[in-house]
Amino acid sequence: MRKILVVEDDTGISMVLRAYLVKAGYEVEQVFDGEQAMRRFEQWNPSLVLLDIKLPSENGWAILSWIRERSSCPIIMLTALGDISNRLAGLRGGADDYLVKPFVGEELVARVEAVLRRQLQVVSEHIAIFGSLKLDYASHEVLLHGRSVRLTPRDLSLLFFLARHPNQSFDREQLIRCVWGEDYDGSDRAVDLAVKRIRQSLADWPEEEGDLVTLRGLGYKFHVRTGT
Asked: What is the model's pTM?
């Protein structure tokens, strides 16, 4: 189940948001100020954040910037500040969408679904983002929730190959040939061990965003969610 963090200091509005999202099948956590939002974001790893701007302790702009320094988690700004300058500030600051109060519940759910459908992003030829997982093929860097993930060169090459072919299955022989080359003379069980190490390194990657999946008798695939 996908997880939505609702950051809204108005208890009545927060409860309405929760009701619509739970009915649509989401797991929902509610926080009511900026400091709570930062703590809960790190603890819970949400799939998406609904973020009000006018908040106690830390305002929504500060929270938006704080999250973007750490994560590519989708963010929808939810506020009464509906003028174009505020909308542009939110989008340029890294928000994925901007919804003005008062809102229609069905529209809110539709916008959440649309943003989550866009979670699989090939930002450029060299960068791909899968929810909270970012792969930079040029710098050979892996970031999860904004933090660097250390992998051996061999494991990294296997992860990058599978990620470039999401939701496609490959058996051990194909992976050895395509990733490690025809000159590889080790056991094909090395693929299993590499996948195990990658899974351990990506243990905090939420299942609803993706996973390295074992297909009995067929091999492995980099499974990602492209919709809700």
From this structure: 0.58
